[in-house]
Specification:
15 helices; 13% strand; DUF222 domain-containing protein; six-stranded antiparallel β-sheet; DUF222; 40% helix; 469 residues
Amino acid sequence: MGDVARDALRFVELSGLARIENAHAARKVLLAGELTLSALERDVALRGGDIRDCGNEAIAEVSTRLGCSHTMASHFCDLGVDLRLRLPLTCAAFLAGDLDYARAWRIHRETAGLSPETLALLEDDIVRSALQLAPAALGREIRELIVRASPDEAASDREVAEAECRVRVRPVGPLSEFTAILTAEQGQAAWQLVCEMADTVCRQDRRGRQILLVDAFVALLHGESALPCTCEKSDCPKVAAASMPSRRKPLVQITVDVATLLGLTASPAYLDGHGPIDPALAQMLAEDATWRAMLTEMVDLATELGVVAAQRDKPPTGTEPEPEPEPEPEPEPEPDAGNGSRADDSTPHQPPRRPGLHVFPGPRLPAPRWWCAAQAGAIGSEVRAATVWRRQDDRGDRQGTRRRSCDGSRAPTGWARRTGDTTRRGAAVPPRRGDGCNGPHSRRPLQVSGMLGAGGTLPTRSRGAVLTP
């Protein structure tokens, strides 16, 4: 048997497997719809006239059983209900394996607002078109059939769809996808503006068409009137284009390990709202960024101060006293009665606790030298400590820190895993109060926020830094 004959047999087998897959997909969707109808009937019977959120139990269970998202499970359930109640011909073709899930979903989506009479008139033509067209072309064909058969319903569907216009951004691997769902005329007008902006460079520009369109889109968002040409020719006809205003720096938050920032390691950084980013991108963004150091301190004063039982399970109450004057380099320890801590008479040389700092048990380590240097002002920075509250959930698989201001009000919060993947939404935190740089330290980290001065250097023991380009 020749290669051509073997390939022909493989194509026949591929088509047969595709039909079997489509038939099983139809059975899965119909079963999800049956479960949804059963849950709807049960919820309506239990709630009476209140039908809000009915059927959500079935959607959640389908999502759990299939291991898919809630949105995908909702699509399965909606399509299954529609196939049972409104689309008998589509259901038969789907069960026979002639239609796949994508085309069945397209039929359901495009005919959702049609009256039963119009749908019964058009379904046969829609199914015959679905056997020959891809999903996108099928959607256009269905809309054309609806406009010809019932223009009023087509206009009504358009008005309903226009109310769902939206804009969103989501991560796609190392990139971001910016999606805008607009009306038909708005979409065409926006595309023309982007193309016109991309044409403001000469023909010798080094960028490809798609890169030019992306740059043009960003330039429009910044209110610019032209793109800078990259041909690097002195006689470029576009070099004298309209002057462009300076772009506003974006406000993004990046969490990166200091060793990675210095090029010593290659740990991933974290971009708030996107996810992990590569070290090279983090270093590039750090070149022109505002630094806010997040110093990781190892502190354990629970045994000496006796405050674990009183404050471990509750956030700070904001009853600390007013800040005291700047302490001497080696202050004498004094008990602080205002924050509920108590000193042990048998240890007269222990340092006082910083007001509002929650500490936890653990092995003790020597005090880091950069922390004491920061207290003495040796690194030219003012370290500002915020009240910290650590939460451990019942499962013990996730923990985080929540910053609170010293007056009891909640500051913007950030949750950190043990692995260090962190999203911190920080503003300037209140000034620190009290002493405590000479105390023993724990291996369990507490996050302490600080702002580096103009001439300051980043401490070598810092676990991470938030960069605001």
